[in-house]
Structure formats: C-alpha cells, structure tokens
Amino acid sequence: MSDESKSAKRAATSVKPSGSSASQRLPAELTDEQKADIAEAFHLLDIEGVNTITANDLKVALRALGYEPHKDKVKKIISEVDKDSMSNTLMLDEFEKIMKNKLFEYENEEEIDIAFPLFTEGKSDYITIDDLKRIAAELGEDMPLEALEEMIREADVMDHDGMISKEEFKRAMMRRNAF
Q1: 141-158: b or e for each residue (b if 16 or more CB lie within 10 Å)?
Q2: C-alpha pair distances (Å), 63 with each of 8, 9, 84, 144, 152
Q3: Integer distance in angstroms from the first to the last C-alpha of the chain?
Q4: Per the omega criterion (within 30 degrees of 0), is the bond before 117 cis?
Q5: pTM score over 0.70
C-alpha cells in the first residue's frame, strides 16, 4: 500500500459518527471535525490535484471505513450523487455527501444480516424471549420481563407468533429511530 493510500485510510477511519443515542444522531449532521477529516481524506485521494476522485478512490475510502463495496455498488453510488455529470468522478461536496450517508446509514441490511444470528446464537430462525433475556444478561442490563415482552410485541408484526423472524427483525431495525 502506498503512503498516500495509508494516509487516506488513516484520515477516512478517523471519521466516526458523533453521539451515541438516536436523539443525538438525528438529524444526521457532520461536525466540523468530521467535515475536515473527510476533506483531508478527499485531498489525499486526489493524487493528481484536480479536485476530483475516481470510483477506485471512493472504494479505498469506503474500505477504510469498514465497507467492502462491490464495483457495481460504487458505480451506482457515484451515479446517484453525480447526476449532472457523466464523468464518473466526484468533487469534494459529492464525496462528503456519500461519506455522510455511509457514516449515518442505520439501515444497512448487510449489518442487520450479520446481527441477527448474534441474537439467536445461530441456532434458530427466530429471536425468542429467552434470546432477549440472554442478551440483556450479557450486557449487564436488568430488564423487566414486561419490557422484553414489549420488544417482542413491537417487532412481531407479521405473524404475531411471539417470536421475531429475520424479516421482522429487519423491519424493526430499519424503522427510523430504531437505535
């Protein structure tokens, strides 16, 4: 990895979402420090100094943030942001918009797919009340049974079977303010 790639990765990974609760995160706005970090990463990726970066550069930045984007996904991201141009390059404001969306993307289906088996310990296709009790205990949370039952009721919207299916879990996690 070149020194520029290492520096860009370091700058991109220093950009983290601010706050720890939904009320602090919404609306999702970047802090001045985050904007500066994104600008630094952009300028490190803009090796030729032309104030644009390529799809490949965006892929490097996304990887530095822990995403493993496919080539087609990167092209789609660029085309959605760079609607006025057919250049397939990004300017700083467009790069900032993409980074902001990625930093505050709570509806990431891939992450939800990874999280679901953590609740079930990979043993079931459903999250049960016992799974929630176990998770609460692992986190050191003393949650009343009624609160856990309410969680199940709020998420169990498709079949009302007293368990949370993977699809119900996705729906619950993708709801605004779910975190």
Answers
A1: eeeeeeebeebbeebbee
A2: 11, 8, 26, 40, 35
A3: 36
A4: no
A5: no
The separation between CA 95 and the C-alpha centre of its own chain, rounded to angstroms, equals 16
For residue 142, what is the DSSP state? -
Six-digit token string for 152: 């199940």
Q: What are 53's strand-pairing partners?
A: 90
**What are the structure tokens assigned to 86, written together?**
């057919």
DSSP output for 120-171: HTTS-SEE-HHHHHHHHHHTT----HHHHHHHHHHH--SS-SSSEEHHHHHH
User: How crowded is the C-beta side of 98, counted as CA atoms within 13 Å?
Assistant: 31
pLDDT, one tens digit for every residue, the chain (179 residues): 555 444 444 444 445 444 433 333 344 678 898 889 889 989 999 999 999 998 888 888 888 776 777 777 777 887 777 776 667 788 899 889 888 877 766 556 777 888 899 999 989 999 999 999 999 999 999 999 999 999 999 999 999 999 999 999 988 887 644 54
Q: Which residues pair with 54 in a beta bridge?
A: 89
Tell the residue number behind the tokens 């009790």, with chain if given: 133
In angstroms, the CA 68 to CA 110 distance is 10
Quick count: other Cβ atoms within 10 Å of Cβ 34? Answer: 19
